[in-house]
């Protein structure tokens, strides 16, 4: 590797990820190398049709080596666990680093909203947050990612040339230059490196 | 060092409590912060302090702000399987009571109230039931009392009603006028709408069933526990507590005082 992702990013305490169209494959791509015992919490919003119960957590639990759960209201965030936002509710991170759900208006026609997750997580983790925005067909997440940067977090956008749908990554790039623009396989390698770098 | 905007937010919430006795101090912070930011744009205030000055000196402005701070997102027969479970699992037990009191806490604009009233009427229970429908937002309560909903929304509610085990045509319960559905006023003959805060008020009646759906998610754990305490105190022996589809007693100290009746549908019973 010859880009910035090769040098470990220190002091990361939590990872948030947003994706829309093409997101299932993209998320499987970046998480598939995560080892059993991975130490950081990951919180993800993947836009889905609003059917009441999502199978995401089950699908990913079968494919990954880390525990996967659907986020519950007022749940404490455990290290090494991947949380998915369920359909129909916004997912936020509170200052005490627990999860909370809400039903405010949709953002860019979406609930859960990536912007809401990223913004609240940036308030909770500040420089300790790594935010990753992937493939998608709308602009949700761009503002949230810019806010993460303002709060001195680290930002990553999937290389739009590789993204299955490039609207979401391009919207983020139009608003602010992220710390890294990477392919899925590079993002996967970055996550594994985080794990091995001392905080 | 705390951010200035976080200090301002805490001061605003404190000012609202001191001046108007509305207590948002133990609401979930992330959502309150977003709603205040939204209100700032609507009020054209550059800072939270400027918003505070407005609402502190102008009660009408505070009532406007209250509309942004509360979230009136609701549907009739929201989560149809929940209402089906009430019909199948709770109603047979409710029928054993000679008279029934139901508390719908945080009733917002009334969708849950009319849903419950329709269900009870179809089960022959409405005549011997008193429903207390409470909320902190007077504007929402007024709307709930009117029982007028947009016809566009009512189309979605019709699907919910059918999936919830509705026994008639949903149109039997309302009269369509222009773009609105005016609900049968006999549905609310036994409904008392009242201003009540789960954050500051106490129990006002013994009840057999309490429905509090998509209210507790806006509270932090401490305030959730206060609400669960009120519910526990109000409910009769073996009374029913029903929550929203993403709300749970699992993370509360009160989980020992309730047992799940239909866990998937968030229907609990006082142990």
TrEMBL record, chain A:
Keywords for this protein: Chemotaxis, Hydrolase
CDD domains: CheB (cd16433)
Organism phylogeny: Bacteria, Pseudomonadati, Pseudomonadota, Gammaproteobacteria, Pseudomonadales
InterPro entries, alphabetized: CheB_C, Sig_transdc_resp-reg_Me-estase
Residues that span the membrane, as ranges: none
Active site: 20, 47, 140
EC numbers for this chain: 3.1.1.61
Protein known as: protein-glutamate methylesterase
Organism: Pseudomonas rhodesiae
Biological process (GO), any one: chemotaxis
PANTHER family on file: PROTEIN-GLUTAMATE METHYLESTERASE/PROTEIN-GLUTAMINE GLUTAMINASE, PROTEIN-GLUTAMATE METHYLESTERASE_PROTEIN-GLUTAMINE GLUTAMINASE
GO cellular component, one term: cytoplasm
GO terms for MF: phosphorelay response regulator activity; protein-glutamate methylesterase activity
Domain (CheB-type methylesterase) ranges: 8-192
Coiled coil spans: none
EC class (word): hydrolase
The reaction(s) this protein catalyses: [protein]-L-glutamate 5-O-methyl ester + H2O = L-glutamyl-[protein] + methanol + H(+)
TrEMBL record, chain B:
InterPro entries, alphabetized: Bact_Chemotaxis_MeTrfase, CheR_C, CheR_MeTrfase, CheR_N, SAM-dependent_MTases_sf
Keyword Transferase: yes
Any one of the GO BP annotations: methylation
Gene3D superfamilies the record matches: Vaccinia Virus protein VP39 (3.40.50.150)
Gene Ontology molecular-function annotations: S-adenosylmethionine-dependent methyltransferase activity
Ranges where the CheR-type methyltransferase domain occurs: 1-259
Superkingdom as given in the UniProt entry: Bacteria
Keyword Methyltransferase carried by entry: yes
One Pfam family in the UniProt entry: CheR_N
Alphabetical keyword list: Methyltransferase, Transferase
PANTHER family cross-referenced by the UniProt entry: CHEMOTAXIS PROTEIN, CHEMOTAXIS PROTEIN METHYLTRANSFERASE
Protein name per the record: MCP methyltransferase, CheR-type
Lineage, top ranks: Bacteria, Pseudomonadati, Pseudomonadota, Gammaproteobacteria, Pseudomonadales
């Amino acid at each position: 590797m010859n880009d910035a992702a090769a040098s470990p990013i220190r002091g990361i305490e939590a990872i948030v990820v947003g994706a829309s169209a093409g997101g299932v494959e993209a998320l499987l791509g970046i998480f598939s190398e995560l080892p059993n015992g991975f130490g950081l919490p990951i919180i993800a919003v993947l836009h889905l049709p609003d059917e009441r119960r999502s199978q995401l957590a089950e699908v990913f639990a079968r494919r990954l080596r880390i525990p996967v759960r659907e986020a519950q209201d007022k749940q404490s965030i455990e290290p090494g666990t991947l949380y998915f936002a369920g359909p129909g509710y916004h997912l936020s991170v509170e200052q005490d680093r627990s999860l909370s759900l809400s039903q405010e208006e949709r953002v860019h026609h979406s609930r859960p909203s990536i912007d809401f997750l990223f913004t609240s997580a940036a308030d909770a983790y500040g420089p300790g947050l790594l935010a990753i925005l992937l493939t998608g067909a709308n602009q949700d997440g761009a503002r949230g990612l810019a806010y993460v940067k303002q709060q001195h977090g680290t930002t990553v956008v999937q290389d739009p040339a590789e993204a299955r749908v490039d609207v979401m990554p391009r919207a983020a790039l139009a608003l602010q230059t992220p710390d890294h623009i990477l392919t899925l396989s590079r993002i996967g390698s970055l996550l594994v490196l985080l794990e091995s770098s001392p905080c | 060092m705390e951010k200035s905007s976080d200090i301002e937010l805490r001061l605003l919430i404190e000012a609202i409590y001191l001046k108007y006795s509305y207590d948002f101090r133990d609401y979930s912070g992330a959502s309150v912060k977003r709603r205040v930011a939204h209100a700032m744009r609507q009020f054209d205030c550059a800072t939270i302090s400027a918003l505070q000055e407005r609402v502190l000196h102008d009660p009408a402005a505070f009532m406007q702000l209250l509309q942004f701070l509360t979230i009136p997102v609701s549907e009739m027969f929201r989560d149809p399987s929940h209402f089906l479970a009430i019909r199948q699992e709770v109603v047979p037990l409710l029928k054993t009571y000679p008279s029934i009191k139901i508390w719908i806490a945080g009733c917002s604009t009334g969708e849950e109230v009319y849903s419950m009233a329709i269900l009870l009427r179809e089960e022959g229970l409405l005549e011997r039931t008193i429903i207390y429908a409470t909320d902190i937002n007077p504007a929402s309560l007024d709307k709930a009392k009117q029982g007028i909903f947009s016809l566009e929304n009512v189309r979605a509610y019709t699907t919910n009603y059918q999936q919830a085990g509705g026994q008639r045509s949903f149109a039997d319960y309302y009269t369509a006028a222009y773009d609105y559905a005016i609900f049968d006023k006999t549905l609310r003959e036994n409904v008392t709408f009242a201003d009540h805060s789960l954050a500051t008020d106490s129990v006002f009646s013994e009840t057999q069933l309490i429905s509090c759906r998509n209210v507790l998610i806006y509270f932090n754990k401490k305030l959730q526990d206060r609400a669960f305490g009120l519910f526990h105190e109000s409910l009769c022996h073996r009374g029913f507590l029903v929550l929203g589809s993403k709300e749970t007693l699992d993370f509360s100290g009160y989980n020992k005082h309730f047992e799940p009746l239909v866990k998937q549908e968030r229907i609990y019973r006082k142990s």
